[in-house]
Amino acid sequence: MEFSDWFYIPFLIGTIYLFGVVIYRFVKWFLGLSKIDKIRVRKNFFTKHTLDSIWESVREGLLHFKMFKVNRLLGYMHMSLAFGWFLLIVVGHFEASSYFGTMFFPFQKSVFFRFYVTENADFPGHTFYAWAMELLLMFVLSGVFLAYFKRFRSKSFGMKKTTRMKSGDHIALTALWLIFPLRFLCETFTAGVYQNGSPFFNSIGAFFNEYLYLEDCLKPLWLAYSLALGTFFVAMPYTRYMHIPAEINLIFLRNWGVQLKERRINTFTLAEVYSCSRCGVCIDACQLNLAGIKNSQSVYVLKNIRNKTLSDEVLFNCLLCGKCQEVCPVGIDVNRLRITQRIETTKQYNSSYDYLQTGVAKKADTIYFAGCMTHLTPSIKKAMLKIFNAAGENLWFMDENKAPCCGRPLMLAGQFDAAEKLISNNQKLILDSGAKTLIVSCPICYKVFKEDYMLPNVKIRHHSEYILDLIKSGKISLSHSDKKAVYHDPCELGRGSGIYEEPREVIKEVMSLIPMAQEREKAQCCGGSLANMKISMEERDILSSQVMQEFSTYEPDYVVTACPLCKKTFAKTNALPVKDLAEIVVENME
Asked: How many Å apart are CA 228 and CA 177, to the nearest integer?
């Protein structure tokens, strides 16, 4: 058997194996979706959502726009490898099509074109294709060499920490690092023997030919290239590199309306987990590093879910602040995935909550639900009552006496059944009241009321939104002081609910607002999160002190926040005066 009849077999086996595993997993994931999600896929398949998915796949899967936002060098590295390799495949296929005169031919003829076509063939576009393919190969090689460099100097790419790899990842990475240098040697050596490349590669080959007998090197090199490709393709489904096809699949599913449901694990969970590239961007974003906690960052949780090695110690040691989710280039809904895993792995607390049945709704236009943490910071509650009085609200203070929790803390702890009972009770009381507006002071309450309650025709407002409405409508008048403040974005209000500007507009009505480097989407967590069941009080204090230290560098008169838990956590440090938004409004009301 001639060498040309079998050397490509490792590549062919790897390609067939990869496609087989990927298609099997995609089909399995689709079949495991809920009935309503399958309907969403079928309904949206032949719509603009599919076109949007194609563009997003190019933008994020190939060009890596989000990665460029993290770090330009990191973005270029990923883009040159992904987009460059894609173009090599596409342009290479067109080159082979021009030579063979048809679009249909054995796939290996395109991948190993310079091996099969050794003569300096004269076919349409030959010169263009020779230059294009070689420039694209150099483009990809630039990314490979950056990847080499990143292994030793990750800080140059804006990354203080990188992920730990397992043996399978090392095998796949080694194969990937070899593929393009081997291709470069194959093509330049072949050009040196047959002069079938561009003048650039021909001259490089001629240089090597002065020192080596290139013809004897060609077969071993082309075989090594085939083996490197085959090895990478076989290893890919079991390593971090499965994210390449999985991310494309995730983009399409999301745009077709499929999303992860808290409390319900299905195969969409796997679609998200396998889409993680383990790039490590989320590690630097995690504040738990400051407290010496280095094993529960999102990339490790996703890996543990994938390997079925997730422990409660790792799962519950998270602030659920959303900082990692904000910077994730793939857009994985890590917070929701964590909560779902907690619900799945937690033994449900059995309680009938019979005492809830005694609650009676009061007829009112507006309901105020302070929330547990607001009751533990009574100055906020008092301030809100003064604001309601000034606005002349027909108000029912729903949880003034012995009312149940909103249910979200139980949900964060994985106790979904218990949370459902609280939600059901509160929901009935709110609807029975006939109120049109529900005001909350706690972002934790705000998020659960917006996402988990069924309250048709009831407008849910955080007190920052409500106070701004009062100011704009002239129902309350405020004086402006000469004080200066920094504003802390609470996690559940900012990243969790997208409310950034309303609190700032309110602050600007009463005092000067100092802009900060880490605010809005980049804001730090106060450290007091109810979501973390494993962190110690000493570790919490480290986090809150670090944030207050950052605030101190701006020399404000006040730290203003819009969350009772954040206020309570920061106040413990005694570093700066801490006020809630409602408090500074009352202090400056005319």
From this structure: 9
**Is residue 328 included in any domain, yes or no?**
yes
CATH number at residue 413: 3.40.50.1860
Domain with residue 498: its CATH number is 3.40.50
- Cβ distance 177 to 242 under 8 Å? no
pLDDT of residue 1: 63
Name the residue range of residue 547's domain. 478-587
53 and 102 fall within a common domain: yes
CA 13 – CA 18 distance, rounded (Å): 8
Answer with the one of 293, 317, 345 that is the final residue of a domain. 345
**List of E strands, 77-142:** none
Share of the chain above pLDDT 90, in %: 61
Find the mean pLDDT for residues 119-132: 83
Residues 139-192: tens digit of each pLDDT: 999 999 998 888 777 777 667 666 666 777 788 889 999 999 999 999 999 999
CATH of the domain at 119: 1.20.950
User: Which of 6-20, 274-288, 440-454 is the least confident region?
Assistant: 274-288
| pLDDT reported for residue 260 | 75
Are 95 and 125 within 8 A, CB to CB? yes
Structurally, the chain folds into a number of domains equal to 4
How many residues are listed for the chain in this entry? 590
Q: Please give the structure tokens belonging to residue 482.
A: 């000469």
Q: Which string of DSSP letters, residue by residue, matches 240-271? A: GGGHHHHHHHHHHHHHTT--PBTTB--HHHHH
DSSP character for 478? B
Distance CA 147, CA 293 (A): 27
| Terminal alpha carbon distance of the chain | 95
Tell me the angle at which helices 167-194 and 214-235 cross, rounded to the nearest 10 degrees. 150
pLDDT score of 564 more than 90: yes
pLDDT higher than 70, residue 57: yes
Q: What is the pLDDT of residues 302-351, one digit of tens each?
A: 888 888 888 889 999 999 999 999 989 888 988 888 888 888 888 777 66
Backbone CA torsion sign across 94, 99, 102, 105: negative
Decide: residue 394, CB within 10 A, 0-12 exposed, 13-18 middle, 19+ buried.
Answer: exposed
Written as one letter, the residue type at 250 is L
Cβ within 8 Å of residue 301, ≥6 positions away? 310, 314, 315, 318, 334, 338, 341
Nearest C-alpha neighbor of 336 from the set 53, 531, 562: 531
Q: In degrees to the nearest 10, what's the CA dihedral of 566, 570, 571, 573?
A: 160
Say whether both 341 and 363 belong to one domain.
Answer: no
The answer to whether the beta carbons of residues 63 and 81 sit under 8 Å apart is no
Q: Name the residue with tokens 């207050």.
A: 548
| 457 and 487 belong to one structural domain | no
Same domain assignment for residues 90 and 151: yes
In degrees, rounded to 5, the angle at the alpha carbon of residue 506 between the alpha carbons of residues 502 and 508 is 115
Say whether both 461 and 576 belong to one domain: no
| Helix (H) or strand (E) segment spanning residue 300 | helix 298-307
